[in-house]
Amino acid sequence: MESPLPLQSLRVGGAELLFDGVKEHQVTLPSQSEPWDMKQLLVWIQRNLLKERPELFVQGDSVRPGILVLINDADWELMGELEYQLQDQDNVVFISTLHGG
Amino acid sequence: MPVQCSSCGERRAMLKRPKTGHSLCKECFFWAFEEEVHQTIVAAQLFKPGETVGIGASGGKDSTVLAHVMKVLNERYNYGLKLILISVDEGITGYRDDSLETVKRNQQQYDLPLKIVSYEELYGWTMDAIVKQVGLKNNCTFCGVFRRQALDRGALMLKVDKICTGHNADDVAETVLMNVLRGDIARLRRCTAISTASEGEGVVPRCKPLKYAYEKEIVLYAYFKKLDYFSTECIYSPNAYRGYARTFLKDLESVRPSTIMDIIHSGENLSVREGVKMPVQGTCSRCGYISSQALCKSCVLLEGLNRGLPKLGIGKHHRLHDKILTKQPLTEAEERKLRKSVDF
Ligand SMILES: [Zn+2]
Ligand SMILES: [Zn+2]
Ligand SMILES: [Zn+2]
């Protein structure tokens, strides 16, 4: 049993309307037997943070195309995307490019 | 396992470029991004030394990055341009207020002059007032038509030689797709052009220096540079059709990143069969703006608003438009048709 995993911050830029208008979220992931990865984080977000129209944020088991993901300020495409194993105090940012310019 | 930058080999890579697949550090990415915009500008000869160039500034990511990069390149390569930010205030409560604040901060951050033109002063109507008349579903017809002209009128007022806008590669690809879907051959042929020559009295030439820049890179450029931009959805419902096109494009791009460039390439290389009828470009008899009809779209829309016939200019009522504009009386049934606030 691993201990709970606090993230430094979880931010949703440009998609905050789906999150009750809240941009920055303080998140501590509950303890579980295996390490947390991004795929599980997305499920957790859907269950706990996403307030409306989940289809505008997630698609299949990943984020919707057009939403960029940064882990500790680096493009998640360099970090293993869904397989990335979250660490204590990680900083996760989602930026939606789907609306507005 | 951190990935090293494939360009300098020294620093940690921070992004994977959708355009090339390269993994780059921030510094190498900034340089590559700016150099590519410079190459675009040079290759298409977008500007001449001494010109005054208006930058269409909305406070959003694209125009903020455009303003920043134009400022950087103008200094780095001595373009000799006088840059001005031009902003349009549609009069949408709460929406533009914040984005205009952003533009005002940009003005100071980039040390560029700023001119704000409002719908109120240009048309006598704010977007809020328009929405009250036409309903939520059709405001984007007004938004689009009025905004395009507002920028031109602002540009004329300021006597700028050119306007540049923040349209990026994703936007251009989306527009190609939209024009294919709508069968709009005339626009399809024009929409990939990186610049438009002056098309008449009331029109300032326009160009898109970010035409080949991917949206992802624009967002990350703004993010890594900590540029101050405004991101919130338009509170008025966006054009649903365009939304589908955008989603479709993003889905394709996630499977094959080159999709964006491929679509632009297709658009650039399409040729129109001889004998296909093209609308003749003339000018609006009321305001002088380019128009294929006797009156341009925004004058028709304004006429409708001012006469309490909001459907005028939306949808297919061409026969009625002519009647109204030549001041012939309408039948009762025709009036009813145009008076209903619009929804379809
Ligand atoms: Zn590097
Ligand atoms: Zn709009
Ligand atoms: Zn006109």
TrEMBL record, chain A:
Modified residues (1-thioglycine): 101
PTM notes: C-terminal thiocarboxylation occurs in 2 steps, it is first acyl-adenylated (-COAMP) via the hesA/moeB/thiF part of MOCS3, then thiocarboxylated (-COSH) via the rhodanese domain of MOCS3.
GO biological processes: protein urmylation; tRNA thio-modification; tRNA wobble uridine modification
Keyword check for tRNA processing: yes
Keywords: Cytoplasm, Isopeptide bond, tRNA processing, Ubl conjugation pathway
Pathway given in the UniProt record: tRNA modification; 5-methoxycarbonylmethyl-2-thiouridine-tRNA biosynthesis
Statement: the UniProt record of this protein carries the keyword Hydrolase: no
GO CC annotations, alphabetized: cytosol
Subcellular localization: Cytoplasm
Function according to Swiss-Prot or TrEMBL: Acts as a sulfur carrier required for 2-thiolation of mcm(5)S(2)U at tRNA wobble positions of cytosolic tRNA(Lys), tRNA(Glu) and tRNA(Gln). Serves as sulfur donor in tRNA 2-thiolation reaction by being thiocarboxylated (-COSH) at its C-terminus by MOCS3. The sulfur is then transferred to tRNA to form 2-thiolation of mcm(5)S(2)U. Also acts as a ubiquitin-like protein (UBL) that is covalently conjugated via an isopeptide bond to lysine residues of target proteins.
Protein family (similarity comment): Belongs to the URM1 family.
Name of protein: Ubiquitin-related modifier 1
Lineage of source species: Eukaryota, Metazoa, Chordata, Craniata, Vertebrata
From TrEMBL, chain B:
Cytoplasmic tRNA 2-thiolation protein 1 C-terminal domain sequence ranges: 282-312
The tRNA(Ile)-lysidine/2-thiocytidine synthase N-terminal domain, residue ranges: 53-246
InterPro entries from the UniProt entry: CTU1-like_ATP-bd, CTU1_C, Ncs6/Tuc1/Ctu1, Rossmann-like_a/b/a_fold, TilS/TtcA_N, tRNA_thiolation_TtcA_Ctu1, UPF0021_CS
GO molecular function annotation: ATP binding; nucleotidyltransferase activity; tRNA binding
Gene Ontology biological-process entries: protein urmylation; tRNA wobble position uridine thiolation
Binding site for ATP: 56-58, 62, 88, 166, 171
GO cellular component: cytosolic tRNA wobble base thiouridylase complex; mitochondrion
Biological pathway: tRNA modification; 5-methoxycarbonylmethyl-2-thiouridine-tRNA biosynthesis
Pfam families, alphabetized: ATP_bind_3, zn-ribbon_14
Keyword Ubl conjugation: no
Entry keywords, A to Z: ATP-binding, Cytoplasm, Nucleotide-binding, RNA-binding, Transferase, tRNA processing, tRNA-binding
Broadest EC class assigned to this enzyme: transferase
Transmembrane helix in keyword set: no
Location within or outside the cell: Cytoplasm
EC number per UniProt: 2.7.7.-
Described purpose of this protein according to its UniProt entry: Plays a central role in 2-thiolation of mcm(5)S(2)U at tRNA wobble positions of tRNA(Lys), tRNA(Glu) and tRNA(Gln). Directly binds tRNAs and probably acts by catalyzing adenylation of tRNAs, an intermediate required for 2-thiolation. It is unclear whether it acts as a sulfurtransferase that transfers sulfur from thiocarboxylated URM1 onto the uridine of tRNAs at wobble position.
Family note: Belongs to the TtcA family. CTU1/NCS6/ATPBD3 subfamily.
Entry protein name: Cytoplasmic tRNA 2-thiolation protein 1
Name of the encoding gene: CTU1
